[in-house]
Here is the input.
Amino acid sequence: MENGSREGYRLRGKGGSVNGILGWVLTMGREVGGAVAVNFIQSRFQITLVPNFTESNNRLSGSIPASFGNLTSLTLLRLYSNGFTGLIPASLGNLRTLIELDLSENNLIGSILVSLGNLTSLAVLQLFNNNLNGSIPASFGNLRSLTELDLSENNLTGSIPASLGNLTSRTKLNLIDNSVTGSIPASLGNLTSLIVLQLFNNNLTGSIPASLGNLTSLSDLNLIDNSLTGSISASLGNLSLTGSIPASFGNLTNLVYIGLHYNQLSDQVPQEISNFTKLENLQLGINHFNGYLPQHICKGGYSILEIFSLSSNHFIGPIPKSMTNCTSLIRVRLDNNHLIGNISEVFGVHPNLTYVNLSNNQLFGEVSQNWGKCLRLTNLKISGNKISGQIPPELGDSTLLQGLDLSSNLLVGQIPIREMERLSSLLILKLNDNQLSGTVPAEDVGLCSKLQQLDLSMNNLSGSVPNQLGKYCTNLLYLNLSKNRFSGSIPVELGNLVSLQILLDLSGNLFTGKVPPQLGSLDKLTNLNLSHNKLLGSIPSTFAKMLNLITIDVSYNELEGHLPDNHAFRNAPMEAFIHNKGLCDNATGLRPCNISKLSPNKESHKAILLMIVAVLLFLLFAFLGTFWFFDRWRERCLEEENPITNQQQHRDVFTIWNYDGRIAYQDLIEATEQFAPNIALAPEDMEVAVKKFTFSSSDDDDEISDPETFRNEIQMMTEVRHRNIVKLYCFCSHVRHSFLVYEYVERGSLAKILSIDEETVGLDWSKRINIVKELAYTMRVIEKCDVYSFGIVTLEVIMGKHPGERISTLPSLSSIEQNIWLKDIVDQRISTPTNQVVEKLISLMKLAFSCLHENPQSRPTMQ
Here is the structure.
């Protein structure tokens, strides 16, 4: 039997022991199931206990028998792909003649036996895909005959033992999907026979040791998803990723795979990486690399490069023109960099290409017709660039396309709908934020059959929205047609899009007519925007059935009538309803609705006439009564010295003080006992808070206020409408002292709550961060808002007290980035923030200090 193979001799039995004549060979195969009971004493064994995967009831279970340790002549033990549980028996450390041990793909737990390091004849050790924990035993350094070590897909922790560098015969080391920490030992550079080094998805830190440059036989290097730092040139040194390859280290022509993405590597990628002619897979994405891409990749007109992924870095310069030679390309990701150049000159025809993402760069040129010749292409994403010209009709030839994203460019002309009808597999089409014009043809839209996301917003499209959109695009989850020039009525067929869940946005168009009640059938929809159109009539009552609706915006239309009884409407801000003809609601801030509306049915004409007569008579008597009451009231006012009567004292102070500011001023002077502290004004059983401003020095105990401050506060509070901002009922301006009358808040101001330890406990870090966010959102409404005040309040929320004179002594922005002093600044009375919250606090502190900059011109605006 060949060493390392999973094929073995097969003598079928029902369990127990099987005696062979030519040595002991036991294979418990597809006829064996249930727990294993072994009672062996001695001899040479090659044991394979594997299930037949065609019969599910043959999986072996239970714990591995400790009696295996008595088989001291055993050379091969394979128990992989079963259901064994429990610990690895300590007796296995007695099998000194064992060459191969395979316990992979079971449910074993506990730590790896240190005694396995005594199996000096072991060549293959496979323990992957279990639930083993603990650290990798340093005793494994004694296994000098070991060629394959696979401990992947477990829960191993601790560092990689430096003693593994003693295993100079090893060709494979796989620790994928564990929680190994620490740095990569430099001693691994001694493993000159190593072909596969896979350390993917661990918690490794530090730099890549330069000694890995000695691994000249290496073909598979996978360090993905760790926290490695440093540069390739400094870290891989002798891997000849920079400069020439030293003769003493040979030539890395065998390197097939390099995986370094999801790390924190920096510096430039060496241009010499283009020399690796056997390279098939290069993945350097999500790091901090800068400089130019390898400009001679796929040189010589031939290359087997299949994966070229360098996304989310800081690369500059052009995409290499030699990419046209990469005829074997399958996947290309260069998105989220700073690349420039003419995209039309870079790519050719790539018959195997399936995925391309060049988004969020500074590329220009036009969308090449060659993309239509890449017949296996499933995703083409070039959004967020400066691509101009028209969308080539040839894209319709890429019939396997599932995702097409050309958004946020400078594209013009019409959408080639007829040619794109052949894209029957299309799931995502995003053409938003361009300069596309024309109409959407009314013929059958074939590309809609599987479409899930359609975004045509922010273009110059016009005409009516075709009814076919609602007939054939029934799988849509997201539909955005906003900020165009669509006109006519909203198609009632859109009510057939019952799969719509994420968004329906028709805002910023020229739609007229009534809102179709059929839209109420979209019961999965969470976000609906119909604002900035010319819609008439009432909002259909069917919208009350849209129970999953979270946000709604119908502002800037000509709508009227009741709001639907729906939590999204009840919780929406006033901005969602403004600038309409007459929307009303009894439960929101809108004007109250009439008790009922009269029906125009013929049978009710008589009742309507009688009601009109009754209303006219009522108005007549009301007018006469009002005239009589006013005359009597005027006579009583003239007879009394004090113009303030009992009836006036009980009037509604919140109806603009009955338009008599002189009386209102006297009311508050008396009700507050000359503005004595702890006095709450309570007209008609309502408590209010009074804030006094003194503009003269006649009162020695009062601090003189700035009249501009008084006017600014009035302006701000009359423009701000938010559920977390107290209401301003009215104000009174007087030469001696003026005041503002606010809604009374029982718990007091934020500063008061922060000053009380018991109250502070309830304001955890999550709530404090939300307070700052709410404040920023509200203050953004006022263009002249005091940015400096926002910075002060932000610091007060984080510190738990007003910063006062400490502002000048607090650290600088550079200190914030070092995160040295944060623990000394934040409020110590509540629990220490988590790492995720610390990042948010640092961001807020940076923002606050930028708002407190000494030079007002250097402060940000609230926009």
The CA atoms of residues 542 and 585 lie 16 Å apart. Residues 605-639 form the longest helix (35 residues). The chain has a mean pLDDT of 78.
